[in-house]
Amino acid sequence: MIDLSTLNTGLFVGGEWRAAAESFTTFNPATGQPLAELGSANAAEVDAAVAAATAAFRGEWGALAPSRKGQLLNKLADLVERDLDQLAALESLDMGRPVGASAALMIPNLIGTLRYYAGWADKINGELISNDGYMGGPVPTHAYTRREPLGVVAAIVPWNAPLMILGWKLAPALACGNTVIIKPAEDASLSILRLAELIAEAGFPAGTVNVLPGLGKVAGEALAVHPGIKKISFTGSTETGRAILRNSAGNFKRTALELGGKAPQIIFDDANLEAAIQGAAMGLFFNQGEVCAAGTRILAHRSVYDSVLGGLKGAAEAQVIGDPFDSATTMGPLVSARQRDRVVEYLKKGADEGAELIAGGSAPDRPGYFVEPTVLAGDNSMTVAQEEIFGPVGIVVPFDSDDEAVALANDNQYGLSATVWTNNVSRAHTISGQIEAGAIGVNGWSPLAPQLPWGGVKASGVGRELGYEGILAYTETKTVTVVL
Ligand code: NAD
């Protein structure tokens, strides 16, 4: 079993571990038993982290050559690779995902993101801009832009994919020369606390990265209102995103908000049905359905509707729910009792509104926070088709025409991602252009690769992470005009 006795569980500030004035208890989602006691940062401790991050920004980190910053990011990637199994185990223990998926997908995603942005660190350039000359001429000017770091950036991270999502914020922020304060989610901080130890081991200057476990209402809010922080990069619920936007107004912080989703998966009559059903099931049940891009609205052409229902029923019943450390398990527990109860509430609401139960439908009577993989049939106006459930629950809705499929896909407050299953290349591109979402996957999920921009529209948030957009998101443009 994993030994937590040597893990630092306090606050990592200015390159040192400090005991916090207060603490909170976390629970093992597979058993419901207490797991760890973590430091809970208060407003004064947030002030101390901002001071340390500001000093590093103005001091050693700020002065470090860009290529050296890249080397440190690569060194961190090496250490994550070395400790991959341990990080995977810590994260699965904390939030319930089967450990094989943590080791095969989530931690490698962090490594890939660190290496991708390590390569960017010494390639962040401005532009030379031609223009009409000083006040319109005839005296020419030499005008150019610089891409400068923002300063201290706060990364507020959710519990569903702590290290992967943190990587999308941390790696570009550091590559661009910012310093960072991380607030992990209270339900899953352990893997990020271990990462802090690796950051120290890699040799980043003190204060470059600070980690503050703590409560959203206390530490999160203190970060959002803090005048010393220049940007908040947040992934989590839409409601918290709104609060962060309001709280950031004081000093006009930049905000990147990656919020919820209710992704449609459109299965056309010309799709490879076997692949579509398999892909739709993965989109529903991977990570216990606790995925912002989970494809929880399956829109099926009426001619394949019954086959899709049958296929998803089979896929749900084939899931093995259990201990994340049992190699037979394909679906672990949800992260917390609160999240399980929230999902069960939605299941009740679905039944009340007349959704037909195809598979699953309840929380098994056993210790831990498990919910059965559930497939419903119904229409797009039902609460279970409109709101993000964040659990292994999908609803299948029939459609008759391409226009209707697009209208149904767009009839939702969210717009993070969508999947289109078709073998008609023209239809694939046309529909991809018509769906209101930040990312579209055709005949597969959007791959969440470091090179590809990621983020939403509508209530799914603002801003993009990853790819070159990640560099733009963590730099400010300065224009310099020299009158010649
Ligand atoms: P949340 O938005 O409350 O928490 C996410 C992060 O924000 C955590 O680190 C939390 O401590 C912090 N936070 C909470 N309140 C804050 C505040 N006022 N100011 C600053 N930071 C704050 O999410 P949750 O309650 O853990 O989950 C609720 C729902 O959010 C889920 O059911 C799901 O719908 C959604 N969610 C989405 C994602 C995603 O990837 N888009 C991830 C997690 C949760």
From TrEMBL:
Keywords: Oxidoreductase. InterPro entries: Ald_DH/histidinol_DH (IPR016161), Ald_DH_C (IPR016163), Ald_DH_CS_CYS (IPR016160), Ald_DH_CS_GLU (IPR029510), Ald_DH_N (IPR016162), Aldehyde_DH_dom (IPR015590). It comes from the Bacteria. Gene3D superfamilies: Aldehyde Dehydrogenase, Chain A, domain 1, Aldehyde Dehydrogenase, Chain A, domain 2. The active site is at 258. The keyword Protease does not apply. Residues 19-480 form the Aldehyde dehydrogenase domain. Belongs to the aldehyde dehydrogenase family. This is Aldehyde dehydrogenase family protein. It comes from Gordonia sesuvii. The lineage of its organism: Bacteria, Bacillati, Actinomycetota, Actinomycetes, Mycobacteriales.
